[in-house]
Amino acid sequence: MLDIKNLSVTFNDGRPGMAVRGINLHMEAGDTLGLVGESGSGKTVTAHTIAGLIEKDNATVSGEVFFEGRDLLKCTVEEMRLLQGKDIGVIFQEPMTSLDPLMKIGRQIEETVKLHCKFTSEERRNMAIEVMKLVGLPEPDLTYKKYPHQLSGGQRQRAMIASAFITHPKLLILDEPTTALDVTVQAQIIELLKRLNEKCGVSLLFISHDLRVVRRLCKKVAVMYNGEIVEYGDTEQIFNDPQHEYTKELVAAVSAGRRVNA
Amino acid sequence: MKKSPNYNLIIGCTLTAITISIIALGYFWMPFNPDTMSSTEKSIGPNLKHLLGTDNFGRDILSRVMQGAGTTLSIATIAVSIGASFGTLIGGLTGYFGGAVDEIVMRINDAVTAFPSILLALVVISITGSGRTNIIIILGILFIPSFARVIRGEFAKQRYMDYVRNAKLMGVRNSRIMFVHILPNIAPVLLSSIAIGFNNAVLAEASMSYLGVGVATTESASLGRMLLDSQAYLFSAPWQALSAGCAISILILGFSLISEGLGYRPMWRPTTKRRHKSHA
Fold first, then answer.
1. pLDDT by residue for chain A (262 residues), tens digit each?
2. Does residue A32 lie within any of the structural domains?
3. Segments forming the whole domain that contains residue B127
4. How large is the C-alpha radius of gyration of chain A?
5. How far apart are the C-alpha atoms of B80 and A118, rounded to whole Å?
6. Is the pTM of this model over 0.80?
7. Which of A21, A32, A96, B78 is deepest in the core (most CB within 10 A)?
8. Interface with chain A: mutation pick from B160, B163, B177, B190, highest number of A CBs within 10 Å
9. Cα nearest neighbour of B163 on chain A
10. Interface predicted TM-score (ipTM) of this complex, two decimals
11. A80 CA to chain B: closest CA distance, Å?
12. Residue B244's CATH number
């Protein structure tokens, strides 16, 4: 479904080196792929490139990103706009600032539907309430009318997921969706994503630096280091038998952390 | 914790509401015809018949102030609407899209702002001739740069906010992002600059009339013109100058307080009923 071939990104604004150096990734429908790596390893740039967020005057992008047979890098802005939100949903790290502070939650969740499909406002409202139930937002009827500042961080992230999920996209790109949340809420969001993946078959491209979260959610994992994918395979296999030096360190760091916590 | 009320906004709104209702009243009813002269009642001080007295032609000053303030306010309103709408449009487009067009438009903006606006208005008026319509158009155009600058800054700031990026990712059109998402979020800034714009417009209109290039005396009474005419009688009939001057001051004070109040704490922001702590 998603096929990335030899993708490279170089920024033109004087940042040295390539942000992404010829990576290859492949995802089937229903896959959960974790993209892990340290800050600056290029994982977010990769996600942004797939999502069409890289402005073409700022960066040189080469390679191919096939989504259901279409090369996203060759799509026009308008074609991309029609894909965004409908087939590809993106969720960011910061649920606090990712919602329009002056628009009611329900209307923000509906917005994607409003843009991409033709439904009456009544139907849209029902869809929004439905998806709000699905993501576990409490009292959907009341929450529908609330403003973002009236929700907690976890609820906002749920609202973000709801707004990305209402159109039933085929691929959800999650850029560190749990980083800004505390651990218990993190666990809930991971459970929610897992459920969405299992029940609705949405593919998840999950970007994180938190290996434990990736391990709980993703079947496959790609480890990025310095713009390259250094290791790629089944999550358990990589965790139990890391090959690359950097992966070994990552896994060791997580287990060391666990020992201290215990 | 109980918050102290926003006195600036309350007093400003009350003051403006009172002046606007007096002006509105003037469109339907005035104590006297503002243009009727009377040779027997020249330069009489304030009394029960003429609450603000009469001028050197025996015209009722209260009626003239009502009409003059109406003229000033209507000119200011239309000029500010022109400035604000075009300014928002230009500022929004340049701020949101950035790039070379942004640079060019903003430098033109700088060039226009470099001239004192009254002076520029005087030059244009001397070419096109005075009159209500000309003044409105010229003031409107002169107000565009200041609005454009403020709005551009806000759009440029909001454009990188996560919610805008997010809206883009959902496939929201740029026009919708600009006017449905960003515009409401910069409303506090826009509204307080509109209030400041009003001040400037009232002042500019009054100064131009005072300099004799404003609204023609034959068209309608004007506060600035009244100031000019009453100059000669400043000591013999001070109520003339005082009435016109106070009217201008009250108009401006009302709008200043509103803009001050808006900057201090917007009142229309959505609030939670069971909010325990203030969100800074």
1. 888 988 988 888 777 778 888 889 888 888 899 998 888 888 888 888 888 888 777 888 888 899 888 888 888 888 888 888 888 888 877 777 888 888 999 998 888 888 888 888 888 999 899 889 888 888 888 999 999 989 888 888 888 888 888 888 889 998 888 877 888 888 888 888 898 898 888 999 999 888 888 888 999 999 998 888 988 989 888 888 888 888 888 888 777 655 544 4
2. yes
3. 53-264
4. 19
5. 39
6. no
7. A32
8. B163
9. A98
10. 0.75
11. 8
12. 1.10.3720.10
